[in-house]
Amino acid sequence: MPQISSLMADPRNIELLKALLDDPRQPVTRLAEHVGMSAPAVKERLNRLEDAGVIRGCRLELDPKALGWPITAYVRVRPVPGQLPKVAELAQKMPQVAECHRVTGEDCFIIKVHLDALENLDLILDRFLQYGQTTTSIVQSTPVPLRAPPLPKAAKKR
Predict the structure, then answer these.
(1) Is the pTM of the predicted complex or chain greater than 0.90?
(2) Residue 132: beta bridge partners?
(3) Which domains does the chain have, with CATH numbers?
């Protein structure tokens, strides 16, 4: 398996990643034109980036509002002693849970949920309250939507 640091030291790999961020569905031939390489060479680079875990498949992004889930909330959970695994299991089973992160601090979990109506928030919270305390924040707006982490700066060509 190639080293991630060596893959990220290559400016062409950085350019490939930038191009994929702009349009993840573009064909390899267009990527090849963009970086000035052959399509088979680009395909090989993409395979190496996938093998190294830099690229993790392509995801389809769905709009929760368009699917009838107009409300997003973050629920912080502080489990009572011995109930930590139960919170994670419950979150995995609930289709309204979009993300669940185990975190440091007073709360052990931050859970992102989608709701069809505000009155259904109690149904979600009641299930988590079996295992500990919850604190909830409802999302009003999203000034910075989900985005990729910053790419390393490409080394200058000599």
Answers:
(1) no
(2) 79
(3) 4-51 (1.10.10), 71-138 (3.30.70.920)
